Amino acid sequence: MLKSVSIQAENGAEPLFSPLSLAVAPGSVTTIVGPSGIGKSTLMEFIGGHLPRGFRASGDVILDGRNVTRLPAEARRIGILFQDAALFPHLSVGDNLAFGLAAHVRGRAARTAAVAMALDQAGLPGFAARDPATLSGGQRARVALMRTLLAEPCALLLDEPFAKLDPALREELRRFVFDHVRDRDIPVLMVTHDAADAEAAGGPVVSL
Amino acid sequence: MTAPEGRLLRLLVLGAVAGGLVLPILAGLWETARAAFGHLPAIGADGLSLDPWRRLFDLPGFGTSLTLTLWTGFASTALALVLAVGLAAAMYDRAGFRGGARLLAPFLATPHAALAIGLAFLIAPSGWISRLLSPWATGWDLPPDLATVNDPAGLALILGLLVKEVPFFLLVILAALSQLPVRRHLEAGRALGYGHGVVWIKVIGPQLYPLIRLPVYVVLSFALSIVDMAIVLGPSNPPVLAVAVTRWFLAAETTLILPASAAALLQSAVVAGGIGLWWAAERALARIGRVWIRRGGRGVSAEPGLVAAGAAVTGLMALGAGALMALAVWSVAWRWSYPRALPESWSLAAWGRSAAGWGTAVESTVIIGVATTALALILAVAWLEGEDRDHLPRATWAEALIYLPLLVPQIAFLYGLHVVFLKAGIGGGIGAVIWAHALFVFPYVMIALSDPWRALDPAYIRAAAALGAGPVRRLFAVKLPILLRPLLTAAAIGFAVSVAQYLPTLFMGAGRVATLTTEAVTLSSGSDRRVTGVYAVLQAALPFLAYLAALGVPAILHRHRAGLSGGAA
Amino acid sequence: MRLPLLATLAFGLAAPALAGGWDDTVAAARGQTVYWNAWGGDERTNDFIAWASGALQTQYGVTINHVKLSDTAEAVTRVIAEKAAGQAEDGSVDLIWINGANFLSMKEQGLLHGPFLQNLPNARYLDLSEGSAAVVDFTIPTEGYESPWRLAKFVLTRDSARVAEPPRSMAALLDWAKANPGRFTHPAVTNFMGSTFLKQALIELAPDPSVLQAEATDEAFSAATEPLWTWYDALRPNLWREGVTFPENESVLQQMLNDGEVDFAMAFDPAAAAAAVERGLLPETVRSYAPEAGSIGNISFVAIPFNAAHKEGAMVVANFLLDPAVQARAQDITVLGSYSVLDPAKLDAAAKAAFDALPDSPALPSNEALGPTLGEPHPSWMTRLAEDWARRYTE
C-alpha cells in the first residue's frame, strides 16, 4: 500500500507526479502506465529502497501493515524484476538462484534441490552450471524471476519486465510470470508503457 | 536508507588519510621549513634567519637549475599529452587498440631508474644504436664526442620522461574515453562536415580534458621534481633543481642542509606555481578554442598531425623496448666493447655472483610492495564502499587530499618526515618504509579503482539488495568478485608504484632497507653495467609479473564467465 | 696524548665499553648486527664486506649489515637527522667508511664516538707516531676517532692500445688534451674523485705547495690557485663535451674508458684497473700510472657515530679490518686489490710471507711506477676548490 507518495528531483521545482496513494491486493497485479520521463521507474526505486541521490521523496510504503519506508532495501523483502534481468556475471545460473534462495533453506542437498526445482519450473532443467552470459533473453528473464521468487518476497515490483523481448517471446513470458506470481498470493506492482502488458496482467491500471 | 555507516566508513578512511598521509606530510614540510629558515640545532644552527635563502640564491648555477627544471617539466608534460591524445585520436576506432594499449603495461611497470639506465646506454654516443650503425654506416671506430645524453638542454631527460609518461597518459585517456559517447559524437561531427581529427580537437578534446586534468597535474608535478631519472639522463653541471637539492642534502658540508631545505621549499613553490601556470594556460586555451569553434571553420585536415603523433609514439615505445632489452643483454654479457653490435663474450656471472645481494633485495621489495598494496587497496575499497553505502557524493576536496602526496614534491617533505618519524621512534625500519610508500601508492590505487568501481551497473547491487543481501554480502559476494579484474589491475599498479619508490625508501629506511630500486640506483653510480642490468631487469620484471597476474588470474577464474571477459581494466 | 681526553670531555660522550678491557667489548659485541654505512658503488668492496661479515660471524658472532651508500655524506645526513630528532642512542648507523671533509664535519659537530683506536688490539700493527699517515686524515689528526682500513693513492689509468706514451705531468696532460680534444675528462667536482683530480693538479702547479698543509686563507688561496685556473681554462675546452658536463664519479668514468668514449680514467686505488680487467670491466690493454712528481695518497678510515646502537660490534669490526691476515686478503688483486695500511716493520714473519705470496697482474703498477706519495691538503682547500670551481665553470 502506498500513502500519498510524492517524489521530487532535488533541482526541480515541481514533483514528478501528483501525490499518489494506492493499495495493491495480494495475488493481484496493479499496473502503472504513463509517458516516459514521468517517473515510473523512480517510483519503483523509491518503493524498493533504491532511490538514487538527487531525489527527495515523501510518503510511506506500507507492506502487510509494516511501514518499510525507512528500512534499507535488503530488509524490505520487496523483490524486483529488472528489464535486463541483472544476473550476476560472475556466478553460474545455479549459483545466481542459490544467491536468491532464502537462508532458512538449510543443508547443501536441500538448497541444491530447491535450485533444481526452480530451474525445472522455469523450463530450464540442467542449466545450473551454465554461464548466464550464454542464455537467451527469455531464458535470462525466467531465471531472474525464479531468483526473485526463491528469496520469498512479500511483494514484487516488475519494472518493464518484457520491454527487451521480441513480441512472440513477450506473450509466452507474460503468461509465465503472471502465473507464477498469482500462485504466490503477494501484491505485485508493474510499470510499463505497453498496453498489452496491462491487459495481460488483468488487474487495476493507474495512470500517472 | 540513511544508515550512517557509509559516512562512518568514509570518516574512518578520511581519518586514516589525514592522520596517516596528510599530517606526516605537513609535519615533514614544517621540519623542512624550520631548517630553511635557519633552525637546525643538530648542526648548531639556531633561530630565525633568511641566511639559508641568501646562500641558496648565491649557489652557482641556481638560476640555470631553475630554468632547466621548468623547461624539462613543462616540455615533457605538454608533449606527452599532445602525443597521447594524438595517438588516441588516430587509433581509437581501430580494432585491437584497447588490447594493444595493454602492451604498454611493461613501460608503466618499469621504474624510472631502470628505464633511464637502459635508455642512457641505448642513446649514448657509445650506446647500442651507435654500435649497431658503426663503423659500417658512420665510420666511427671510437664513439663521437656528441651530447646525446646529459645534454645541457635536458633533451635526453625529456625523452626519458616521454617514454614513461605517454603510456601513462594513454591509459588514463582510454579510461576517460570509455565514459564518453565518442563514437556518436564522431559520427555527429563528421555528418556536419568536420574532419576526423578536427572533431577530436573541437568536440572530444574539450570533454576529455576535465576527466584527465588531475593526472596531468600529477605528471607535471612529477616531471618538475624527478630525481633518479634526471641523475642518469639529465645535465649534471648544473642539474635540475630537484637533483641539486638532493645533492645539497647529501653534501659533505653539513651546513648545506640549510640552503638545501630552502631549496626543497622552493621546489614545492615551483610545483605549485607550475600547476598554477598550467591552469592559467588551460583557461586561455579554452577561451581561444571556443572562439575558434564558434567560427565553424571545417578547417584544415588534422590527419598529418595524427599520423606524426602515431609515428612519434611508436618511436618512443621502440626506444623504451630497446632500453629494456639493452639491460637484459648487459646482464648476461661478459665483455662488450665498442663498436660491436653484441657482446663478444657472454656469462651468467653477474646473476650468479650477486645472487645473495639481489635475493635479499627481491625479498624486501616484495614484502614492502605487497604490504603497501594491501593497505592501499583496503583503504580504497573502504572509501568507495563508504560512498556507495551512504549515496555520498564524490567529495572533491577529500579526493584532493588523497592526491596531495603526488602533488607535493617528495624532496620537500621527506627529510622533515624522516625527522618526525625518528622523533616518534618509528624511523629506520621496514614499517616506516611501508608507511611512506603507502603515501604514494594509495592515490594511484584510487585513480585506478574509482572509475571502474563507480561504473559498476547499480542494477546488480539493487538486485542483490532486493534478494535480501545486506551490505556486507553485497560487497563480498557481488561487488568484489565482479570487480576482481579492476581490483587486481589497481593492485598491480600499486605494486609497481611501490617497487619504483627511490627517495622514500632511501630516507625512511635510513639506508637499512635495500630494495631493488635503491640498489639499482646505487649500482648505476658504479662501473658494472652488467650487475646494474641484473637489478634493473629484476626491477622491471617484478611489476611486470604483477601485471601478468592481474590479467591472468581473472582470466582463469572467470574463464567460463563470458559476461566478465570484456570487463573494465 | 692528552688531546683525545679533552675532546671526550668537551663532547660529553661517555664510553662505558672502553672502561673494561677488550674482552668485555668482544663479549658485549657477540650477537650484534653492525650497520656499516659504506659506499656501495664497487662490487669488489661489496663482496669483501660480505666476506668479512661471514668471517666475523664465525670468529666473534658479529654480523655486518652493509648499508650501501651512493655517497658517504648520506650517512652523515642521517646521523644529523637523528640528532635533530633528539635520538642520542640506538642510532641507525654503527660504522661509516669515511674520510676527509666528511670526517672533519662530523668531528666538528660532535657526531663521533671515541676516541677508540688505541683500544683496538690490532692497532699495534699501525704506525701511530705523530704525523704518520695512519693517524692523519687530510692533515687533520684523527685523535683516535677513526680507524684506518685501506690505503688509497691517486692514479691515472690509460688504454695503452690508444695512448702509447702517457703524459706524466699536468702540463703534459694539457698538451695531450690539445692534441686529442674530447678524449679526456674528470668526474664532477662535487664528487670526491673530481676534487681530488683538482687537488693533484693544485699540488703540482702551486708556486708553494707547503701552504696547502695549513687552513686556506683568502690570500693564500688566490695566490696558490692562480696557475691552476690558468691551466684549467686552457684545458677545459679540450675536455670531453668541451667541459660542459662531467661524469658523476670515477666508476662512470671507468665505464666511459671501457666504452671508448675517453682514453683515461682515474682512481684512488692503484689496483682498481687490474681488478676491473680481472672482472671483464676494462680491456686487457689498460695500464695505471702515477704522475712523475708523485700523487696524492690517503688512508680510508672507519668511524663510529656518537649514537651508534652497536658500538662494541663496530669496534670489533674495526679491529678485524686491521688484522694482518685480513689486510693481506684485501691486498690480493683477485679479491680487493687495496694496499695494506699496516706498518711492514711491525709485522711478524708469517704475516710478511702472506703479503709476499700475493698474485700479480700486468695492469698492476709496480711500486717504482707509483712514485712518491703526496700528502692531502687541509680539507678547507678541497671545499674552497670545489666552491670556486663551481662559481667559475657552472653556467
UniProtKB/TrEMBL annotation, chain A:
Domain of life: Bacteria
Keyword Disulfide bond: no
Domain ABC transporter: 2-208
Record GO terms (molecular function): ATP binding
Entry-linked SUPFAM superfamilies: P-loop containing nucleoside triphosphate hydrolases (SSF52540)
Keyword annotations of the record: ATP-binding, Nucleotide-binding, Transport
The UniProt record lists the keyword ATP-binding: yes
The protein's name: ATP-binding cassette domain-containing protein
Native species: Albidovulum salinarum
UniProtKB/TrEMBL annotation, chain B:
Gene3D superfamilies linked to this entry: MetI-like (1.10.3720.10)
Tagged with keyword DNA-binding: no
Any single Pfam family the record assigns to this protein: BPD_transp_1
Chief location category: membrane
Keyword Transcription regulation attributed: no
Annotated ABC transmembrane type-1 domain residues: 66-276, 362-550
Cellular localisation: Cell membrane
UniProt KW keywords: Cell membrane, Membrane, Transmembrane, Transmembrane helix, Transport
Transmembrane intervals: 12-30, 68-92, 113-133, 153-177, 214-236, 256-281, 302-330, 366-384, 396-418, 424-447, 482-503, 533-557
Domain of life (superkingdom): Bacteria
Topological type in the membrane: Multi-pass membrane protein
Similarity comment: Belongs to the binding-protein-dependent transport system permease family.
Descriptive protein name: ABC transporter permease subunit
From TrEMBL, chain C:
Keywords: Signal
Signal sequence range: 1-19
Pfam families: SBP_bac_8
Claim: Nucleus is one of the keywords in the record: no
Gene3D superfamilies associated with the record: Periplasmic binding protein-like II
UniProt feature coiled coil, ranges: none
Name under which the protein is recorded: ABC transporter substrate-binding protein
The species this protein was found in: Defluviimonas salinarum
